[in-house]
Amino acid sequence: MAEILKGLPAASAITEELITRCNSLKSKGIMPALAMLRIGENQSDISYETGASKRCEKIGINVKKYILPKESKKEKILNVINEINNDKNIHGCLMFRPLEDKDTELEACRLLLPEKDSDCMTSESLSGVFTGSDTGYPPCTAQACMELLKHYKIEFAGKNVAVIGRSLVIGRPVSMMLMKENATVTICHSKTQNLPSICRNADIIIAAIGRAGFVDKNFMSPGQVIIDVGINVNSEGKLCGDVNFSDAEGIVRAVTPVPGGVGAVTTAVLAKHVIESAEKL
């Protein structure tokens, strides 16, 4: 049976480290703070907001929430971004995306200062991921994949990794981060030919394609590690990932559950970015 790579132990280890670092900052008169900007009442956004707020509270990070109506105009949203930029007591910002108006989202992402960009909103942060520089921060979920692998001492160097999905939120950033750790990465997507065969030959699979149970036994081989980033609702109305978990349990070396895997680590990574921003003062 596969080892289940639960997110809670990794998140708890990060949290305990951050509590110490946060206390050190406070002893110097620095109070780490995160701004959250949410437009509308999307339930998944609210759920993540609640979890992130609890994580920050446990660590000692202040959270300042900006909650705007769904019908808010571009000017109002950009004014909030400016306020966050100009507030020296705010060290990080999370804006829930996507916004309904793509132009507004793009302008907000351009406006936010990279040093306060806690979840890779800005082009500067994304550039940092692709060039390996320290500008901004990678997407929290992409880094959560890396934190999970490191926590369970899964080696990357010299390993073949199949990343299924090419989004700028998961697929492409996590591929760059893996290559920085000397992995050999194949970025796959819906148009990739012989996808099951490519995945069977990989040491590690990162599944982020957004299709419930897409990665089944045909993609798997003994000894593999599978990180399931997918969040889907199956035909029975239950939360599930992109991986057929029952198939994986009987074949691979290790697999993350959904829920309780990567998602459990993302709020800890978000908090880590805020602490790092405050430490750079």
Provide an overview of this structure.
It contains 10 helices and 11 strands. It has helices at 7-27, 43-59, 74-86, 102-111, 123-131, 140-151, 171-180, 195-200, 245-249, 263-279, and strands at 3-4, 33-39, 62-68, 92-95, 160-164, 184-188, 204-207, 225-228, 232-233, 239-240, 254-255. It has a 6-stranded parallel sheet. A 3-stranded parallel sheet has the order 3-2-4, sandwiched between helices. Strands 9-10 form a two-stranded antiparallel sheet. The longest helix has 21 residues, at 7-27.
Sum up the structure in keywords:
alpha/beta, 3-stranded parallel β-sheet, 11 strands
List the helices and strands and how they pair.
Elements lengths: L2 E2 L2 H21 L5 E7 L3 H17 L2 E7 L5 H13 L5 E4 L6 H10 L11 H9 L8 H12 L8 E5 L6 H10 L3 E5 L6 H6 L3 E4 L17 E4 L3 E2 L5 E2 L4 H5 L4 E2 L7 H17 L2
Helix pairs in contact: 1-10, 2-10, 3-4, 6-7, 6-10
Concise overview:
This protein has 281 residues and is an alpha/beta fold. The protein is built from ten helices and eleven strands. It is globular.
* Average of per-residue pLDDT values: 96
Order of helices and strands: EHEHEHEHHHEHEHEEEEHEH
Percent of residues in helical segments? 40-55%
Amino-to-carboxy terminus distance: 48 Å
Our count of helices gives 10
What is the 3D shape?
globular
Return residue spans where pLDDT drops below 50 for at least 5 consecutive residues. Answer: none
Structural class of the helix and strand makeup? alpha/beta
What value does the Rg take, in angstroms?
Answer: 19 Å
Bin the strand percentage.
Answer: 15-25%
Q: Could you describe the largest sheet, including whether it forms a barrel? A: 6 strands, parallel
Arrangement of strands in the largest sheet: 1-11-8-7-5-6
* Count of DSSP strands: 11
